[in-house]
Amino acid sequence: MQNEELWQSVLGQVQFAVSKANFATWFRNTKIVSSENGEVVISVPNAFSKEWLSNKYNSLILKILRTSDNNIRLINFTVDSPALQQKQNKPQKIKEDPSDQLQFQEFKVNQETNLNPSYLFDNFVVGSFNELAHAATWATSESPGTVYNPLFIYGGVGLGKTHLLQAAGNRAISLFPEKKITYIAAERFISKIVEAIRNQEIESLKKKFSQVDILIIDDVQFFAGKDKTQEEFFHIYNNLYQNGKQIILSSDRPPSAIPAITERLRSRFEGGMIADIGTPDFETRLAILKSKCEQKNITLANDVLDYIANNIQKNIRELEGSLNRLLVYQKINQKMPDIEQTKKLLQGLTSSQRKSTSPKRILQVVANFYDLKQDDLLTLTRRKEIVRPRQIAMYLLRTELNESFPSIGRKFQGKDHTTAMYACTKISQRIEEDNALSIDVNLIKQRIYSEPENS
User: Region Domain III, AAA+ region: start and end of each range (predicted)?
Assistant: First the structure.
């Protein structure tokens, strides 16, 4: 059996053993380059893929190969990337200005689409926490308007939503260059609506959006409370959807948890595919760091990488921020920092990851999440839109700070401790039964520990 035929046979069986997202990420652009004396050498596009396949899929690949040839005893991976080799061999110019710290990779945003070409599926690390969202955006980019429409991606700050949305747009451009694609942040979209209304050009703006084949809007939670924006977007959405155009949206929460949004718009958001992005585990955080190091052409000691992955847990964006700090150190000192220097350089970032909060912080985040004022939570009203958030606040004071029930009751205008007990028991039970509530509480916790106060 020829190498190419053998590898195609292996890939055919691998597809049944791994998810579509992982197959697309790790097995694309691979091939057998030699098979001699019981050893098979597999070519991969980069060092990151080599390490991941060696650690994760070595046993699976060897098992499948041995079903075709029982003499195969060993597999090895080799990097075959001329572009990478050229990049590594090219002398690196060290700039002396530390203010240049975020300019290690310069990419120009496409003025026509607003997409950043650096956001690709090729440099997006797939893990269990984002596998569904990755697979959905990949499929959408290959068949816009037919597979998942709309596609709604949600997750916390800095977990890769923007990367995925823009990767979908960039891949769609490469596959369908004739299609018109527009990426826009929700806040920018709101500004355009306001400006168009002020200048009496709203119909012109709606006509412009009607000509788009793929509309990508990031952070639609900012539509909350913007009635005119919601009304105009509703019409834009219907026009695009009825004409088979693709709509991709992102938010920091699922549609059901976005406050002050019309029911007809919420139902549109929920009418297609909804996929969430969770928090990456240690293994995936380490993989992300190694991928970023490869992109930036830097080498860090394993203990440094382990330290960063262990101490920056909730935000992928901060993982890259930590690497940028180390790069600034390298540019100034002409060497990469060791573990002790790394701890000092990242002290501010890692300390912010420690799990600490306060009653004031919990009340602030719960109120903001449900588009309320903190005073609303403390009133004696029985209004439904306030009772549930108040109970969640009580529950979090108990579970996150271990406050006593009498102490919790005193914070809510002297309510009896039995009221606090009832609230905590009710929310605890409902979380087990109500998936939407469970998602809300997890998102609130994520905000409590990851966002700055008074945000």
Answer: 114-330
160 known ligand binder: yes
Residue whose tokens read 């005073």 = 375
- How much of the chain, in percent, has pLDDT values that exceed 90? 34
- Annotated ligand binding at 169? The verdict is no
Q: What is the pLDDT of residue 95?
A: 36
Sheet with 246-251: strands ordered across: 181-185, 214-218, 246-251, 151-155, 273-277
The neighbour count for residue 275, using CB atoms within 10 Å, is 20
Q: Decide: 89 and 63 in contact? Cβ < 8 Å.
A: no
Whether 182 has a binding-site annotation, put simply, is no
The domain that contains 326 carries what CATH number?
1.10.8.60
Number of domains forming the structure of the chain? 4
- Strands 214-218, 273-277: pairing is unpaired
158 is in an annotated binding site: yes
**pLDDT value of position 84:** 40
> pTM of the prediction?
0.62
Domain boundary (274, 292, 307) is at 274
In this structure, what are the phi and psi dihedrals at residue 119, rounded to the nearest 5 degrees? Answer: -90, 105
